[in-house]
């Protein structure tokens, strides 16, 4: 069912409004009233689609994580060489964050929903599927002694930790990354993850 505001349905308007509010104010500082005001929906319309602010956040987080992971895997599998894949993902991370700054802020700044919270089961399942796909790409390079055998968390920190920190500075308005700096982040990730 569509409503009048730009022809978008209430659910889409709530999600879009929540993305703006959560990105600007953070989830904890965003009120239900500000979510309704931002999206222009009535109380009844809000509760028709979502049970709470936490429900909106869980849905939005799960949707955003899936978008990011889909882009990540699509880019990764395009690269057969270990170094090409590692460096391409850092570049993709930076470009995705630049193209989707509100969604990137959500992933970088907010705690993911826990398994028993709205969106939690979807996030857990998406992560499992994502890690399987990344592992399928990683294992042949590890067996060929090109990439280190590192646990998933350590892999993430070594691969994207510096890029994440650069994004934090970027989103805070403290520094705009240059092409040379992004290239440096790509090379640093490769040097951290390759086997000697």
How does the SSE layout of this entry go?
Layout: H1 10-25, H2 32-39, H3 43-49, H4 53-76, H5 82-99, H6 101-109, H7 120-143, H8 152-171, H9 179-193
Helix pairs in contact: 1-2, 1-4, 1-6, 4-5, 4-7, 5-6, 5-8, 5-9, 8-9
Which keywords apply here?
single chain; 196 residues; mainly alpha; 0% strand; disordered N terminus
List the helices and strands in order. Answer: HHHHHHHHH
Largest sheet: none
**Helicity, in percent?**
over 70%
Structural class by sheet pairing and helices: mainly alpha
Q: Please count the helical segments.
A: 9
Question: Quaternary status of these chains?
Answer: single chain
Global Rg: 19 Å
Beta fraction:
under 5%
Low-confidence stretches: 1-7
Question: What is the end-to-end distance?
Answer: 58 Å
Which shape, going by the Cα principal axes? Answer: elongated
- How many β strands by DSSP? 0
Mean pLDDT: 93
Overview of this protein structure:
By secondary structure, the chain is an all-alpha fold. The protein is built from 9 helices and no strands.
Outline of the structure:
72% of the residues lie in helices and 0% in strands.
């Amino acid at each position: 069912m569509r409503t009048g505001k730009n022809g978008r349905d209430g659910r889409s308007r709530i999600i879009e409004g929540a993305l703006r509010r959560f990105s600007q104010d953070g989830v904890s500082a965003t009120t239900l009233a500000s979510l309704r005001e931002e999206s222009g929906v009535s109380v009844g319309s809000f509760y028709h689609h979502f049970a709470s602010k936490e429900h909106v956040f869980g849905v939005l987080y799960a949707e955003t994580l899936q978008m990011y992971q889909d882009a990540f895997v699509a880019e990764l599998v395009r690269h057969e060489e270990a170094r090409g894949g590692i460096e391409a993902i850092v570049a993709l991370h930076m470009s995705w964050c630049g193209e989707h700054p509100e969604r990137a802020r959500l992933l970088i700044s907010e705690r993911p929903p826990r398994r028993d919270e709205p969106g939690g089961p979807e996030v857990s399942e998406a992560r499992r599927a994502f890690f399987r796909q990344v592992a399928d790409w990683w294992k042949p390079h590890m067996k060929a002694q090109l990439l280190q055998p590192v646990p998933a968390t350590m892999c993430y920190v070594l691969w994207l930790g510096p890029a994440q920190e650069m994004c934090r500075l970027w989103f805070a308005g403290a520094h705009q990354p240059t092409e040379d700096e992004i290239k440096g982040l790509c090379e640093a990730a490769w040097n951290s993850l390759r086997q000697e």
